[in-house]
Specification:
This is PTS system, fructose subfamily, IIA subunit. The protein is α/β, with parallel strands linked by helices. It has a single domain, classed as Mannitol-specific EII, Chain A. Strands 1, 2, 3, 4, 5 and 6 form a 6-stranded mixed β-sheet that branches. Strand 5 and strand 6 form a beta hairpin. Helix 1 runs antiparallel to helix 2. The longest helix has 16 residues. It is globular.
Length: about 150
């Protein structure tokens, strides 16, 4: 499965985008989905420099295509409070989805994952359930219902 309970961080208190991405990337490294966390982080932060991945509805979807990603994944974090994801926008976020895709499968898989997340999150019910969820198992169930 593309998401795993150990890739979920509930109750994030940091309001620092880089710290949250690093926390999630480290989890992916610990699970063996990323071979070099620093290298993967560099790809994600380079993407963030191009433009913000905050998409509205309290959601950010940072992502990186990298040769350091061994197996595709989605890591998820939920912040206690909404906060400004990027100083270049006024978008506040609370739900963060970090996507990792191996570079050689980047084009098709990356777009498929983004499309599935976006389609699922158009549904108010899924967003609200993600905000209300209190366990990693509950988050995994919701992701499954979203087709991820």
């Amino acid at each position: 499965m593309i998401i795993h309970e150990s890739l979920i961080e509930l109750n994030v208190t940091s309001k620092n985008k880089d710290e949250i991405i690093k926390t999630l990337a480290r989890k992916a490294g610990e699970l063996g989905r990323v071979s070099d966390v620093a290298g993967y982080m560099q790809a994600v932060l380079a993407r963030e420099e191009l433009f913000s991945t905050a998409i509205g509805y309290g959601i950010a979807i940072p992502h990186g295509k990298s040769s350091y990603v061994k197996e595709p994944f989605i890591a998820f974090a939920k912040s206690q409070e909404a906060f400004s994801w990027d100083s270049r926008t006024d978008q506040e976020v609370r739900l963060i989805f970090l996507i990792g895709v191996p570079e050689e499968r980047a084009n098709d898989l990356h777009l498929k994952i983004l499309a599935n997340i976006s389609r699922g999150l158009m549904n108010d019910s899924y967003r609200e359930r993600l905000v209300q969820a209190t366990s990693a198992a509950g988050i995994v169930t919701i992701f499954g219902e979203m087709g991820l």
